[in-house]
Amino acid sequence: MSHRYSFALALVLAGTTSTASAGARVTSPVWIDREDRIVMGSFGDTRATADNIQYISCVTGAFGIGSCAAVDASGRMAACSTFTPDQLATIRSLTQHSFIVFSWDKSGTCTSIEVVNASWSTPAALSGY
Which end of the chain is more exposed for a tag (fewer CB within 10 A), N or C? Predict the structure, then answer.
């Protein structure tokens, strides 16, 4: 994990945390760094954005291939695909509470897929839609 990536993740988490009567909450719509090829975002907060542009998703199927894709508020897109069993298992662990981080190489192959399932992430079902 690059120092720039670690710093960016820390900023996203620290800068958007608020305390509420139900506990800590983190707002994390789609964030894309095309230079370092990193995407972060949560299902619920992306779904709750005021625009109709942003999305983040990861999918896998029966043929042993998976992919992740996202579009941020400015319309920048990022995507990657994977055949790696560990990454496919990570995609299958997604829930409505998931905060997703993925990165890719120059060929569009996923180099990392990380999922955080946490109470601080807004569930997609409670995002107001």
Answer: C
Encode pLDDT of 68-94 as tens digits. 999 999 999 999 999 999 999 999 999
Element (H, E) at 79: strand 77-82
> Is residue 80 left, alpha or beta, with left meaning phi > 0 and alpha meaning psi from -120 to 50?
beta
Which pTM does this prediction carry?
0.77
SS3 state of residue 67: strand
Between CA 1 and CA 34 the distance in angstroms is 16
- For 11, counting Cβ atoms within 10 Å of its Cβ (0-12 exposed, 13-18 middle, 19+ buried), the class is exposed
Whether 94 contacts 58, CB under 8 Å:
yes
- What does the alpha-carbon distance between residue 102 and residue 63 come to, in Å, rounded to a whole number? 21
Tell me the longest C-alpha to C-alpha distance in the chain.
45
